[in-house]
């Protein structure tokens, strides 16, 4: 339900009051002095919306709805990865880059800080995955790749599709984010199964917990959008 915003305007004793904002300066017919305008209706709407977000999931760690992540502890000891598990690790790097690049694009196109905050978290996630790639001597598929470009054609197609979807509206972008995190949770859950390497299990477990927080953040923002 859209919020009703009422702007009360009164001119008294040479002072203009707009929406509760006191504007100094003389207000008299025939003068060249123009009072500083108060906030527009849209500005007041966004201020209220941002205030709601700060309390209910804008991207601050305190409210636990932003998907922000704590720093990683020291990496566990190295183990052994099978050929299939190394291939999964390569896929994880591509997925983390996809999430980062997609949320960065959405942060530039939509007024929702959740994208900027989670994109920052994805940078740390990709760094953790790259550490594993280096440890296990696996080629990094994201190395030197520009924003929005991927080695795997399937990942490229997914990125292009979700980017186009998210350009339509904020709700569409949030839904795209929900899709990314839902897919990541499924992939990470499968990747952890049967994995014995302590360091890889540690990183994947952290990524899984982070994706669950990210998903909760997107779900919350979608609920807020639908309520307006």
From TrEMBL:
Domain of life where this protein originates: Bacteria
InterPro entries associated with the record: DUF2202, Ferritin-like, Ferritin-like_SF
Occurrences of domain DUF2202 (ranges): 87-222
Protein name: DUF2202 domain-containing protein
Organism, scientific name: Streptomyces sp. NBC_00093
